[in-house]
Amino acid sequence: MDSTMPASSSGAAPTSTVTSAPLETAKSISQLPVYWLGHSGSDVFLYREFLPANGTEDPIQAALLAMTSQRPLDGDYFSPWRKPSKLGASISAQNVITVDISADAFSDNVDEGIATRAIQQLVYTATAAAASAALIAANQSIQVVLLVDGHTDYRAFGQVLLDKPLVRQPRYTAPIWVVDPQEGATSTGALEVHGRAVSPDGSLQWQLLKRGASNSLDVYLSGTTSVTSGANQLGDFSFTVGAPAGEYELRLFYRDPNDPQAQPGVETKMVHFK
């Protein structure tokens, strides 16, 4: 687990230009939306995965329990949370999610930047679970009240005072994140890639790198794809790619006109072709 922000980052102002963080749409109750922290360049952002769910569990509580006790599918992601001895969640008719978590869920060795992002990790996961389970409409506003052992005003991770309702902060959303495929996915034919991103010119660069016998990664295919919303706006992207059998790294980034070799916003997934 990473406990501190990268040395080249202040930790306070993410470099992402995301300005909105829309809620998820209703999805199968067999999947839990869970957010993790992950590095991109010199900053740390929020990334989402879908994990298997038991359809009989409360979706918000189940998603938060997964967030605090399971490991991400993608080894590039991490979480500063510990498994709590107590965890409860409820949602009111006023679209307020109340989460009551025990104090043992908080690590005691993280800096302010990671702590702030971890609180947003919980907010994003709780609200995503509510929206995915159709407990709230995607176009409605929603707040999260975080209690610790039943009390307000707790200083989470020793850094963040929980003295008011919380909402999603868009600036912590990753500039590029692949929704599908998830880490380790296997394709028997053409692989469909979907995700969300924001880029200065409304386009992304992608590469498919094949893992060689010496464990090296060499570019096999590359191309560009468009973000549906255009320049500097969070939107969707999709494209299809195929390759011979083997293990590959899918890599996406946007261009920096001042540094053609840079790969800002980079996001990667390991995939397998049969």
C-alpha geometry: globular
Content-based structural category: mainly beta
Helix/strand order: EEHEEEHEEEEEEEEEEE
Q: What characterizes the major β-sheet?
A: 5 strands, mixed
Q: In words, what does this structure look like?
A:
The chain is mainly beta and 274 residues long. It folds into two domains: 31-172, no CATH class; 176-273, Sandwich (Immunoglobulin-like), CATH 2.60.40. The chain contains two helices and 16 strands. It has helices spanning 59-69, 112-132; strands at 31-40, 43-52, 77-78, 87-91, 96-101, 143-148, 155-156, 160-161, 176-180, 185-187, 191-197, 203-211, 217-226, 235-241, 246-253, 267-273. Strands 10-16-15-12-13 form a five-stranded mixed sheet, with no helix packed on it. The protein has a three-stranded antiparallel sheet with strand order 2-1-3, with helices on one face. Helix 1 (59-69) runs antiparallel to helix 2. The chain starts with 30 loop residues before the first strand and ends with a strand. The mean pLDDT is 91.
Summarize this structure as a short list of keywords or feature phrases.
single chain, 274 residues, mainly beta, Immunoglobulin-like, 2 domains, 5-stranded mixed beta sheet, 3-stranded antiparallel beta sheet, 36% strand, globular
Produce a short descriptive summary:
This protein is mainly beta and 274 residues long.
Secondary structure topology:
Elements: E1 31-40, E2 43-52, H1 59-69, E3 77-78, E4 87-91, E5 96-101, H2 112-132, E6 143-148, E7 155-156, E8 160-161, E9 176-180, E10 185-187, E11 191-197, E12 203-211, E13 217-226, E14 235-241, E15 246-253, E16 267-273
Parallel strand pairs: 5-6, 10-16
Antiparallel strand pairs: 1-2, 1-3, 4-5, 7-8, 9-11, 11-14, 12-13, 12-15, 15-16
Helix pairs in contact: 1-2
